[in-house]
Amino acid sequence: MEPAATASLIAGLEALGLDTGAKHLAMLQDYIALMRKWNRVHNLTAIEGDMDTVTHHLLDSLAIQRYLHGNRILDVGSGAGLPGIPLAIYQPSRSFTLLDASAKRVRFLRQCMLQLNLLNITPVHARVERYTLAAGFDTVVSRAFATLADFATAASHLLAPGGRLLAMKGRYPDEELTALPPEFHMLGVHTLNIPGMDAQRHLVEIGWEADAND
């Protein structure tokens, strides 16, 4: 990774109050190297430069760490492992399931699991609508869904009692919040300050009131 990008990563981690020790830095740098290698063939992400990868992928993902709830986390539409892999690197005591409908992306996630020795991630090849887990998840997060309503409707069956949906968004999503089905309630919209990024970023926290007859 370019020296300027490494310096940006260290400064960004410090701004987020995260550890900048050699172990975490090495894992993040190895992850970026893997992403760049696979991206040449498999088109995992449109962002290729080291500086933008640091801000728009790593720091953007890690900025939501404080809002995670519970120990079982599901990353829906994980793609290149975002936000799941950076979060798993910093949260080894939590269990992360990385779900994606693309087989090639899941192969990449499995390679990351092996090469980074991430024992707390489980890559899964499935569509969110068809995936089930009896125990449910404490937090279900996504950066990829088009609308809050689509995300909430597709993923709510995967929530454990008291679980939360976290949707990563750009600008404040007024219209999407208005369109949420009535069984979902907004717990908060958090402004995310991503070091080195000028664009607006928000995190929408949603709760679900399951049908009383279920």
Order of helices and strands: HHHEHEHEEHEHEE
- Mean model confidence by pLDDT: 93
Indicate the CATH class.
Alpha Beta
Tell me, what's the shape?
A: globular
Radius of gyration: 17 Å
Helix content: 25-40%
Could you state the CATH homologous superfamily?
Vaccinia Virus protein VP39
| CATH topology (fold) name | Rossmann fold
Number of domains: 1
Which descriptors would you attach to this protein?
7-stranded mixed beta sheet, Rossmann fold, rRNA processing, alpha/beta, 7 helices, cytoplasm, 214 residues, 37% helix, single chain, 7 strands
List the helices and strands and how they pair.
Layout: H1 3-15, H2 22-42, H3 50-62, E1 72-76, H4 84-90, E2 95-100, H5 103-115, E3 121-125, E4 137-142, H6 148-155, E5 159-169, H7 174-178, E6 184-191, E7 202-208
Parallel strand pairs: 1-2, 1-4, 2-3, 4-5
Antiparallel strand pairs: 5-7, 6-7
Account of the protein in words:
The protein has helices at residues 3-15, 22-42, 50-62, 84-90, 103-115, 148-155, 174-178; strands spanning 72-76, 95-100, 121-125, 137-142, 159-169, 184-191, 202-208. It is an alpha/beta fold and 214 residues long. It has one domain (3-208): Vaccinia Virus protein VP39 (Rossmann fold, 3-Layer(aba) Sandwich), CATH 3.40.50.150. It is globular and about 50 Å long.
